[in-house]
Amino acid sequence: MIRFDNVTKTYLRGQSPAVENLDIEFARGEFVFLVGASGSGKSTLMRMVLKEVAPTRGSVHVAGKDLARIPSWRVPALRRDIGMVFQDFRLLPSKTAYQNIEFALAVIGTPRKVVRRLVPEMLEMVGLEDKGRRLPHELSGGEQQRVAIARAYVNRPSILLADEPTGNLDPATAEGILDLLAEINERGTTVVMATHDRAAVNRMRRRVVEMVGGVVVRDEEGGGYESAVEDSVISGHAEDGESVTAAGTADPADPTRPSDPTPAPDGAESADRAGRDHVDEVRASEDVLEEDLIDEREAQHLDADDAAFAEDEEDHR
């Protein structure tokens, strides 16, 4: 389902690789936890599956396709078979729970009759059948994450990537989200979840892949969060690696942003916070604008892409 063949990813010349010599495969129907300290390469691995970034060396295969051979205009078709859930939910703030899920169907031109059937089914599956008309700010954090999962799963993707989906939730709510992901996995979807949630990993006892400095140091079936592996940072070993992360090194998924920046001096902190708030507001506005710009013509264009992709695949058989 997902295979990395000797993959190395370096973002900037002279910088240590975000992922190095990665040889690993995730089979169809697996539930895999990716664990490791911040900056260990988990997010880079996921971004390569989505073809957001390309490996510097090696090859990535998703659903039997070599991503290097997929041109940019076919990437939307690839991503329709990959659901993505984030720690911060990323719901459209001006749209209801129903409309947020509906949006994922609208962008691929799903007929209205199908939309009216699928969205209520998704709301019922995630336990929110009576809250479809609520806006995100009217929902709890756990409920918002359930909407985000429903949106990611509504197209029935074969792969679901979850990046810290329980990171902003209390333990009881996190258990419910984990149960929901397990249910999706039981329906046949491959789930790869990056997490720092010790309780979640220990409770599920699924395959655990631990990364340190872009390298896989543990691949264990039925594993727990911590391990006796000497190179494990999260288990209290390899303390030097832990201190490097804590010192504020560049985040490999965004080399321009420190993973744990040094606190700003008095007087600068409030200005910095205001700047971040402004950026967040702009991003939220851009999300709404992006939604408003998707119309029937875009849906037709995506359908045409699908038809061309299918013809090309048939020609290669």
From TrEMBL:
Which stretches of sequence are listed as region Disordered? Answer: 238-317
Q: Chief localization class?
A: membrane
- Recorded topology in the membrane: Peripheral membrane protein
Q: Start and end of every ABC transporter domain?
A: 2-238
Q: Which Gene3D superfamilies match?
A: P-loop containing nucleotide triphosphate hydrolases
Q: Which GO terms describe its molecular function?
A: ATP binding
Taxonomy, superkingdom: Bacteria
Q: Name one GO biological process term.
A: cell division
Query: Where are stretches of biased composition, namely Acidic residues?
Result: 305-317
Function noted in UniProt: Part of the ABC transporter FtsEX involved in cellular division.
- Family, per entry: Belongs to the ABC transporter superfamily.
What PANTHER family does the database record attribute to this sequence?
A: CELL DIVISION ATP-BINDING PROTEIN FTSE, IMPORT ATP-BINDING PROTEIN
Name of the protein: Cell division ATP-binding protein FtsE
What is the originating organism of this protein?
Brachybacterium rhamnosum
